[in-house]
Design brief:
- The structure is a single chain.
- The chain is an alpha+beta fold and 210 residues long.
- Strands 3-4-5-8-7 form a five-stranded mixed barrel. A two-stranded antiparallel ribbon has the order 1-2. Strands 6-10 form a two-stranded antiparallel sheet.
- It is globular and about 45 Å long.
Length: 210
């Protein structure tokens, strides 16, 4: 064979071998790219799994806060107290006090209202017959007890700075006793109708308390 022909054949063979080699290299590069793509596809799956775990932890952290809020609402208590007005015979009383000293049959001392003079009655003065009996009777009726005072709206006080009042004490759970009238009915006092708001003829011995 001619040298020129051998040279041509050699070149052809070389090209063929180089092409085959090129194809092999291309296939290798394709395989590498495919592997890279598969790795990229697996990364989102791993990230998704981690996000789910974080979400679960967050839910568990919120639970104690919800329980604490519920406990606070259950232990909150609002309590209110209403103080009523004492009504006797359909009329609110002017003063409620405590009797701590009896002066005589128609006068006694109270806290915090001061000295009280029973309205529209008179009892014997010191040295007169019946003084001790009337004083003792009033002591039994009012001493160390709660008294309800209907104070005279006209004069309020007499010349001795004593409250002029119609006085009541508790008789039972529903009624009070008219102290002024009781002393007259039982012979310890007599009526003395002074110029004030009271009319003894309209008094009742027992009056309903509300």
């Amino acid at each position: 064979m001619r040298p020129q022909l051998l040279l041509v054949v050699g070149l052809v063979v070389g090209l063929l071998i180089g092409g085959a080699a090129g194809v092999g290299a291309g296939a290798s590069r394709a395989t590498t790219v495919l592997s890279t793509v598969e790795v990229v596809k697996t990364q989102p799956i791993t990230l998704t799994t981690e996000v789910v775990r974080i979400s679960t932890v967050s839910t568990e952290v919120l639970r104690p806060t919800t329980i604490l809020s519920t406990v606070v609402q259950q232990t909150t208590v609002v309590k209110t107290t209403t103080i009523g007005v004492v009504v006797i015979g359909g009329k609110p009383v002017d003063l409620v006090a405590r009797a701590y000293h009896v002066v005589d049959g128609d006068t006694f001392d109270t806290f915090p209202s001061g000295r009280v003079r029973l309205a529209d009655i008179n009892t014997p003065e010191r040295g007169q017959p019946g003084y001790s009996e009337a004083t003792n009777a009033l002591r039994i009726l009012v001493l160390d007890k709660t008294v309800y005072l209907d104070v005279d709206n006209v004069e309020v006080m007499d010349s001795y700075n004593r409250l002029v009042a119609l006085v009541y004490v508790d008789y039972n759970s529903t009624h009070v006793l008219n102290v002024n009238l009781w002393l007259v009915v039982n012979g310890y006092a007599v009526f003395a109708d002074f110029a004030n708001e009271f009319n003894p003829q309209e008094w009742s011995l027992y009056v309903r308390k509300d």
